[in-house]
Fold each of these.
Amino acid sequence: MVSFVLNGKEVEVDTPPDRRVVDLLREDLGLTGTKEGCGAGECGACTILVDGVSRLSCLMLAAQLEGRQVTTIEGLRGGREAGLHPVQEAMVDCGAVQCGFCSPGMALSAVHLLKRNPDPSRTEIREGMSGNLCRCTGYVKIVDAVEAAARKMRSKPAGTAAGDTAP
Amino acid sequence: MEVDELTGKIEVREYLAITEGGRVINPQGFEQQVQGAVAQGIGYALMEQVTLDKGEILNPNFANYLMPTSLDLPDIESLAVETVEPTGPFGMKGIGEVGTNAPLPAIAGAIEDALGVRLTQSPFTAGRVLSLLVPKGQE
């Protein structure tokens, strides 16, 4: 059994300890927002937050989640009426989503980036997101979105969801 | 575009795409498609190569088939030359593919402009660029 906090709720999962976290999330828990793009830690589509830190769920094993705070894209909220985190809202408004496959990973990487650096330059954004591949957008509007979200979050700190905790 | 003459590495610093794709119905969508296509074109020009050995792909993964990351691309600016395509719905033509055409020749031309010689085989890897910079037979 692995016990952890998932998107703000305590869960206990009966799983082999070496089950890949991406499989645990997608297959066992039905949270298909987390994507598998490569299974080799190269593309970032499987990005989740563990104790507020962006991690690659395709390279993590279930046992590693024991006692952790885990946030998937489904658990990202801004406490806003629309139910979207500023990063998500900015990605929509800026046209940063095309096929959407990289988007959950991009959003979570951006959340972690902005926690580390609330006022990043475009270069710093590109560096912070460099572990997330995108084939559709050329990254420009994704950088725009992170910049816009950072601006909004600096001026009006949004309450983030239970589960999105900084250590 | 910048070329590092020691390593042969190419960096695209700025990119302006001026695209004629018929009438623009959704300006944000137009820009999305052009930016994405230019990104693919730059990848095609600088780093992407399927390596085959007797029909077997030797680099079927992101570690060895290189595609651009956020650090490999500049801010891509897009301008539309709006014409009206008489055979298209509402004068529209389509914008999904055309943006990939220009980056490869544009970068080849930029290399020639920077170094005075032309590369004729893509991707324009650092090794191929260095082969232009270093005369044959010299270390």
Amino acid sequence: MPLELICPAGNLMSLKAAVDNGADAVYMGFRDNTNARAFPGLNFDEAQAAEGLRYAHERGRRVLLAINTYPQPDTWTRWVGAIDRAATLGMDAVILADAGLMRYAAENHPGLRLHLSVQGSATSYEAINFYREHYGIQRAVLPRVLSLAQVENVVKNTEVEIELFGFGGLCVMVEGRCLLSSYCTGESPNSAGVCSPAKAVQWKETPTGLESRLNGVLLDRYGKNEKAGYPTLCKGRFEVAGETYYALEEPTSLNTLDLLPEMLAMGIAAIKIEGRQRSPAYVAQVTKVWRAAIDAVKKNVAGFKPMPVWMAELNKLSEGQSHTLGAYHRPWK
Amino acid sequence: MNLSLGPLQYYWPREDVLAFYEQAAKWPVARVYLGESVCSRRHVLRLADWLALAEQLAEAGKEAVLSTQTLIESESDLKTLRRLVDNGSFQVEANEWGAVRLLSEAGLPFVAGPTLNVYNHETLGVLAGLGAVRWLPPVEMSRDTLAALLDRVRNPHPRPLPQAGKGEAVSLRDARLDEIETEVFAYGKLPLAYSARCFTARHYNLPKDDCRFRCLDHPDGLTLSTREGEPFLTINGIQTQSAGVYSLLNELDSLRELGVAALRLSPQSRHMGRVVEAFHAALSGGNVAADVLARFMPGKPVDGYWYGHAGRESSFDQV
């Protein structure tokens, strides 16, 4: 089944919103730092996870569990415990990044389906095939760094299903290979499950404008008419050789609706929507638009054109004011 | 404990690279990592040139290791990787898991580089079983985490394999895990992130595919400062580094205590010989004041990661 729609579930309400609006599968995390969205108030305890599974399975949809941070030596058992619980609960797959953890899952729960997380930083079929041969992974989520032609080359050279990010926040760095957040705050996605953690964010009104800081480091300063976004480190304005600009990336987000025909043609297994930290209303709206778009492209590849109403809806929801095709479109690089 | 010269992170003119390694042959380092590990567009030295350098350094008594590209994007990147793996003479440092696959299939011993994300003893066990003889922790790993990891390597808990026997748990120890040597990134601007996008080209409003090799103008990268003028990061093509210079010169006792085998010093364009000298003197029991080394640094010293803090923090501030 090509082009499955995989939607974010930060809590039970979002999960239901995704399922009700046409997600083929949802992905979630347990309520601790075993996943890369370890935000306060987000994620599932065991009872909620069981309830989510029941809700999705009754409607013929699947639930994937992200255990995609890197276990530390002293807390190894917490990650292993998460794998065991996933198997007991009957998760349809676990999404992992750490090779040691993958080995544990393959050896102890041979029936548990494994997906390689985007945090595993596998950008080539050689890397993906490594995890296939050793641990039998069924699917890999690609980092948002390859052009479409490069993605196609990966698909052609592996039997592992390929999942791509389609919409939402845009990491400009290779996922799993970015330590900017820990350099600034002490916590990175790899080791703490957070990027630019909210507890390190400070806002301050000053005579020169509204300032956003991360653990004391000035990320941006906004003029009166400027819209201030969440201070993600790589989307701040900095000074390089006397010039102040978005030196790494604008506060823009990813939208690949335009590319659906190509993605379908090259055999992409699934499209992932980013945003477990977003509201149930957001998840409902994004899921609805993407369901309609995927159904439309499957019905008529040649005649597919994103409907203006879809684009308008998605633009309303996106974090920054603008959208990009990201690395899929070579000139972005 | 001995010294390694890490792979060159920057793009320098050919004659500068050759001159640098001519000097390096005389420095008191045990091994030298060679090759282009950052950007596939950089080409003033081709594989044949790197191999020739490796030969020269080997003749000078150094262990030469070839370092693979960290971000693999294209089929041509893979071609380069395969040629490195098949070089026939020198050990290879794997910087992503595709390289691990090729090296282990070829049955070659290898170095597990710092971007393989080895955060725990189990993953290190996987790599040891595949042929890794040396490994580097991620640069963000603290002393305490490294200590805990190495403790578990030395005192392994049995790994049960429930389905291996008839109801009987079999424990397996990873082959060669207790022999693997630990190398720690101990000096230089920290490699923090990799991207598909080239930030140097972006700075010059050039597309990546036509970057005009502007990295050549920035032998220690381009400093990125906050709007308050505080140096924060360093732009180096598709790589982002710290602006601060990591230094564990004052941590040699704890590094020894951990059983670390080698310290990686990352190349910079000026005073590299002096940096090596300082570490060598300190390793030989000499007393090297931190401010002496600071004079040779292309940025302010930082060591927050080692103490489990934000990487940009510095215990030197408190002195």
Amino acid sequence: MPKHEPILLKNMSQPGYTGSLPEYEKTGGYQALKNILGRVAPGDVTQMVIKSGLRGRGGAGFPTGVKWGFLPKDYHGPRYLCCNADESEPGTFKDRQLMERDPHQMLEGIVLTCYAIGAESAYIYIRGEFVLGAKILEQAIDEARRAGYIGKNIQGTGVTVEVWVHRGAGAYICGEETALLESLEGKRGLPRVKPPFPATHGLYNKPTVVNNVETLANLPHIINRGPEWFAAIGSPPKSTGTRVFCVSGHVKRPGNYEVPMGITFRELIYEHAGGMRSEKPLKAFIPGGASAPFLTPDHLDVKMDFESVAAAGSMLGSGGVTIMEEGTSMVWAALRLMEFFYHESCGKCSPCREGSSWLVQTMRRIVAKRGRAQDLETLTDLCKNIAGRTVCAFGDAEVAPIMSTLKHWRSEYLALIHEAEAADLIHPGLAVRGH
Amino acid sequence: MLRETYQKEIDDILSRYPVRRSALIPLLYLAQQDNGYITEAAMIEIAGILKLTPPQVYETVTFYTMLNLKQVGKFHIQVCKSLMCALVGSDTVIDWIKQKLGINPGETTPDGLFTLTTVECLAACGTGPMMQINDDYYERLTEEKVGRILADLQSTGSCTLKTGSFMWPEPVTIRSEK
């Protein structure tokens, strides 16, 4: 059994816990809010979060307190907090659980953040498909408002924080923070050119912080137990705390597992998720959502912290770990993800909009055994001309599956192309015909 | 007209935002809920409420996959076909539904009851293969489950196999160590 103590999943791991306000309060819920609001200066709250080492759990891993610190100090107009609950990165399904099973944990984090950054309004931007999640959050907000944890003059401190749920409508790109802001403003979700950053020009051009659900859910615990306690968990000094990793694919027990950062992929896959589902051994895994380059069994002992995974040539990203067994075609797998990115490209930048279409066409041709030797060069060339040449990180993300499978499993691409060429020799013309 | 039926809801939505245009997607959802899809008349009316031009409304509507500009079936089946679900059999699920309903992705049954669509990741990767039907998720699908879901929806309009508040793996009572 795991030796560590869960933090974020602790309450919901108790059988029968429904996440209602009285139950949350019974576990010490809203104590952090009572101890902070009106008693500790907002700047000191930010300092605590910086000291804890908490980094964003949405994908980029930016230090949370530092992000808050970028808000202008001399600006006295409205500021906003947006909670990024757009969870759309393939392989990731933790925020859904955090919101639906323990909504007040995240709401308390939202109020604490608003207090620290001086925001009186917070919007929870939740992906449109999470209809149940949105309903649960709205009920929880009503409960919290009635109990005086949300709204005007919270607990008699004079602090005002209003929280609203805003549903997206089906667009992966709205998880990118500036696309999220555009979408929240009622527009197409096209990422903005940065700078300026949301910290100065965010929602309605006002200073804005965008934080992920899991990031916010950590805050009450950091406040209650102290930044030093948090900073000692995981893989300090750079990857502190736990992560809720989402395990999917060919394992015995897929699901959400909260573990301290810095355990190895081997531990997560073979101890927590029960190992491979059959006798077929592990062939490949994606360590941090669809945007993270594929890794191989040689990387099983890599530590699951931001730096170690980056050093191994991938990224910890959103925490979605997808396992593939021997027998899975890596070219097919890369095509499936490429089809996702092609579908989700917002169309703002030409390299991504046009390039994703060309990549999908080339990959489909190879998988259908109609590829040509020069296709591999075409793929590499396209990828190099997309990555780093777009307004947002989507361009880098979409080339990750192809670039990494070409690196580790080039022979599989070649085998499909050789088959195509052989078929072409025997039946001239056949290999270039459509379906 | 939306305003006649939903004035209270519209006022409530407008009160949440300091800038009117932010209410666009919530109002479009209201129109879709009212009519099953978003009509041109609704877009024009919403443009009027928000002081936008109809093209500004249209350009937003066409960006988002969940906003329908055409009628869909009473039950809109959306099967996830992204890699994580595909690894555990989503292509087979799509085949089962195609066989049972006699329609291909993108089509609606002649009685107008079911529309089948394949979609990208719905954030249920650990409990795939999965599908969403209207507002509800159905996860860890098997052929038997798919059959029961479709039959239940057809006969009663609802199905108890839908996922409630999500947690996976489910919490277990810790057994005492031997």
